[in-house]
UniProtKB/TrEMBL annotation, chain A:
This is Tryptophan synthase beta chain. It catalyses: (1S,2R)-1-C-(indol-3-yl)glycerol 3-phosphate + L-serine = D-glyceraldehyde 3-phosphate + L-tryptophan + H2O. SUPFAM superfamilies: Tryptophan synthase beta subunit-like PLP-dependent enzymes. The modification N6-(pyridoxal phosphate)lysine is found at K97. One of its GO terms (molecular function) is tryptophan synthase activity. Gene3D superfamilies: 3.40.50.1100. Keywords: Amino-acid biosynthesis, Aromatic amino acid biosynthesis, Lyase, Pyridoxal phosphate, Tryptophan biosynthesis. It holds the Pfam family PALP. The gene is trpB. Pathway: Amino-acid biosynthesis; L-tryptophan biosynthesis; L-tryptophan from chorismate: step 5/5. InterPro entries: Trp_synth_b_CS, Trp_synth_beta, Trp_synth_beta/beta-like, TrpB-like_PALP, TrpB-like_PALP_sf. It is an enzyme of class 4 (lyase). Its EC number is 4.2.1.20.
Automatic annotation (TrEMBL), chain B:
Its EC number is 4.2.1.20. PANTHER family: TRYPTOPHAN SYNTHASE ALPHA CHAIN, CHLOROPLASTIC, TRYPTOPHAN SYNTHASE, ALPHA CHAIN. The alpha subunit is responsible for the aldol cleavage of indoleglycerol phosphate to indole and glyceraldehyde 3-phosphate. It comes from Candidatus Wirthbacteria bacterium CG2_30_54_11. This is Tryptophan synthase alpha chain. PROSITE patterns: TRP_SYNTHASE_ALPHA. Coiled coil: none annotated. It catalyses: (1S,2R)-1-C-(indol-3-yl)glycerol 3-phosphate + L-serine = D-glyceraldehyde 3-phosphate + L-tryptophan + H2O. The active site is at E49 (proton acceptor), D60 (proton acceptor). CDD domains: Tryptophan_synthase_alpha (cd04724). InterPro entries: Aldolase_TIM (IPR013785), RibuloseP-bd_barrel (IPR011060), Trp_synthase_alpha_AS (IPR018204), Trp_synthase_suA (IPR002028). Pfam families: Trp_syntA.
Amino acid sequence: MKELFFKTSYDADDRGHFGAYGGRYVPEMLMPALEELEKAYDDARRDPGFARDLTDLYHHFSGRPTPLYHAQNLSRQLGGAQIFIKNEGLNHTGAHKINHCLGQALLAQRMGKKRIIAETGAGQHGLATATVAARFGFECTVFMGEVDVARQRPNVFWMEQLGTEVRPVGFGSRTLKDAVNAALKDWIATVETTHYIIGSCLGPHPYPSMNRDFQAIVGAEVEDQIQDHGFPKPDYVIACVGGGSNSLGIFNAFLDDPEVHLIGVEAGGKGVEKLGDHAARFEGGRPGVVEGYKSFFLQDTDGQLTHTHSISAGLDYAGVGPQIVYLKDRGRLHLTYATDEQAIAAFRMLASTEGILPALESSHAVAEAIKLAPTLPQKKSIVVNLSGRGDKDIFIVAEAVKDSKWLDFLQSVIDREKQSDTK
Amino acid sequence: MNKISERLDQLKTSNTTGLMTHLVLGYPDMPTSIEIARTLARGGADFLEIQIPFSDPVADGPTIMTANQTALDRGITVPECLRAISEICEQVDIPVLIMSYYNLVFSYGTAEFCTAAQKSGVSGLIIPDMPIEEEQDELLFQHADEHDLINITFVSPATSKVRLEKIATFTRGFTYCFSTYGITGSRTELDSHLASYIGEVRKHLDLPLGIGFGIKTPDHIRQIGKIADIAIVGSAIIDQYNTASPDHALQQIGSYVGSLKAATRR
């Protein structure tokens, strides 16, 4: 397998610029912290001991390597290319987020930090952060928009059980972008003792590069695993694109292999015609500089970030990692989108044909594979990054498929609670 | 000569601490915020920092952030803000600086924004999320300079000596020193390390220094007067507005600024 940290011809320059994007657009208070982090990361990356420790955690704590599963039933039913599922949902905590959390926790420990903070949308990154905080003995605060707290209660509950303080963010649109904002503010005030674990390949340099490197194990594993299935390399690799952590994680190993087609799937929400109805940055977004980095953002004519919508909290964000834009600009990455409805349909199809419940984020990637596979011959291969498992989305999916028995169940739980209260 | 530099010269001659006061345009509404600007100028402010609201103000605390959101919820736009700033500049004598976040400038077009700011009568820009490292791509300092605007630089207690020297080469007018690691918002005590930190900055930056973040009381102004050139008061003014009864809010802001002004004589 590849070395844990490897270079590609699509890396950032020394100042963290991916072509015209990326950089470090932060208030002066954050500058020293980012310089410190950049230096610590550069040192760690060159230290074989760090790679060894991280690999050990990947294997024995998170359960890597995750399988590359040949979805034969789904492939047969669609009657085209062979679909392979890179099942990141089988990681400890249920999603790929644990990969960069382990990397950053190890780095924070190396830097002598005592506390970690994070922002979270779907709650998966928060949960992964809370998990590593418990594992490494860090004090931990996770910032989460009130809207997300409401729709991802199970993850909030688990974070609290892990000893993390979940701080709901009640300003702005009360979703992921506001959680990022709140976390940055906390960091500005606590930078000496605290490391901020940003949850995707975005934010100021060095986060986009660092998180990509901590996620790159995903693609590196696929590169080997696909050969076990008789393919020298995948013909297509599909991943959903929120900030870019799972997508860059699987793409990175293939960037310099132009025969491998890379497809990113954004959240089309209720449709991409109207700003506010979706979170597809390449459908109506434009360049901007927000929250410390230059990239594509969904914004109004003045440059104010607009509200976004997606059924999956993890994709419901106005910005996207700078390397994603760079890959698109250089023609290396094709971007498309799936709507809420298509994601739910894909969820149901994968569940019923393969016995795999994908996270709603990952369902967007599955939706694209379902579209693409029938247009390709059977000897072609499609690898879908199933970034997370769907357990966390039980409430949203139950609502989306209008399961009345689920509502009855919720009501019965409430009734039972009430009864025991009155006793 | 730029009005900021002129004012700094006057302050030096008269041996007083400069007073820079801040407001968020469109908070609580546009006409009132324009009135607040006039009130601050009448009350004795030496510089007016006028914030154009942004959806993601990363360097602001809850008070100013809420004011930003309130103004945006009312549908305020950048062109409207520039018109209002132009109106304010006609009515006040003191130098006006636009404070905002870089995305609004970038979105408008960096050169175009500087042209518009100059046309409005503005003397300087305060853009906390556009560090000197990005100048080679953004050319904000350069465009500001070409339009006789001073683009203010920043330092914080965590800024290294190496950075201080780099920042010094970009600085014109004065440097905005963050008083603490924290974000904007009123606090009762100034950081005990403030004097030694500012002393360190002085060694590398031989230019006027402004101190902002958490500056609230006449006593704060007197303390700053001993070590720096300008005291910058932000969210404390919004706090004054928020705690006053609507009928007396302007009056209260006026007398508050008066009390700060009285503490600027050295």
